[in-house]
Amino acid sequence: MLGDLERYIALCAGARPRAEMTIAETRAAMRGARRFQGAVAQDLVVEEASANGVPVRLYGELSPGSLLYFHGGRFLSGDLDTHDLFCREVALLSGCGVCAVDYRLAPEHPFPAAFDDGLAAAGWLAERVEWMAVGGDSAGGALAAGLAISGSAPPLSWQMLFYPMLDATSRQAVPAGPWPNAEDMQRGWAAYADQQRTDPRVSPLLADDFGSFPPTYLVTAEVDPLREENLAFADKLRLAGVALEHHDYAGMVHGFALMTGEFTQAREAVASAAAALQVAFAGR
């Protein structure tokens, strides 16, 4: 019987590497990857809104607490729809409102566009809730952690990061396969912030003061070009005395948490993160 990873590789047989795709093809591929997501059975109130001019999607009741969430996609792709089922499930399982941010994408809108959108959305949400957490996956994780370390965002009580892009100067590699590789990550960094790679708002791993980060829930994946920088981030948080809950998923690829229809560990990762969010909010 095939394991999750082997079955995923078989499902993606013949797929072109993301780094060889055009920007339009990359965006289409990410939208197409929704076929790997599992259905969310329960109903949830979902609304569209404008957060200081930035489009957001609101899941559940925001007050008194909410998670400000940034989708992944290497700054080049992804949108509210690619992460819709993920955000729905987090909101349902945690009982905490989720505000998903439709930030501007590179290369049309390089740094600091996405960061500024996140900052604007954070300011809008802070006026509506008593307790705010921040989260994101991949590039969205970079935006979440960048906000947390920037010193310009409203108070953030907790952060949830799934395999975040944390170091634009890193050039790590993983075995070739139907997943984002180091070359694809570098394409994203170049499009988003090629001349600002060492800015901590771009590369949170390069921050001077790790004690400024809020308590952190970190998810890492074994088959991921970002794994080493994620582990280095975890080490720096521990050394700074930041409360850290770290879950490393063996055999999983970058982006696996969205693939709840295919990976048992994806379902476990989302459920675990939602439970941790619930605990963090309850203990505010």
Distance between the termini: 45 Å
What would you say the CATH architecture is? 3-Layer(aba) Sandwich
How would you characterize the largest beta sheet?
A: 8 strands, mixed
Number of strands: 8
Q: What's the Cα radius of gyration?
A: 17 Å
Number of helices: 8
Question: What proportion of the residues is helical, as a percent range?
Answer: 25-40%
Strand content: 15-25%
Which superfamily, in CATH terms, is the homologous superfamily?
Answer: Alpha/Beta hydrolase fold, catalytic domain
Task: Report the average pLDDT across residues.
Answer: 92
Strand order of the largest sheet: 1-2-4-3-5-6-7-8
**What is the CATH topology?**
Rossmann fold
| Morphology call | globular
Q: What this model shows, in words?
A:
This protein has 284 residues and is of the alpha/beta class. The protein has one domain: Alpha/Beta hydrolase fold, catalytic domain (Rossmann fold). The chain has helices at 4-11, 23-32, 84-94, 113-126, 139-150, 182-193, 227-239, 264-282, and strands at 46-51, 54-59, 65-70, 97-101, 131-137, 158-162, 216-223, 244-253. Strands 1-2-4-3-5-6-7-8 form an 8-stranded mixed beta sheet, with helices on both faces. The relative contact order is 0.16.
Could you give the topology of this structure?
Elements: H1 4-11, H2 23-32, E1 46-51, E2 54-59, E3 65-70, H3 84-94, E4 97-101, H4 113-126, E5 131-137, H5 139-150, E6 158-162, H6 182-193, E7 216-223, H7 227-239, E8 244-253, H8 264-282
Parallel strand pairs: 3-4, 3-5, 5-6, 6-7, 7-8
Antiparallel strand pairs: 1-2, 2-4
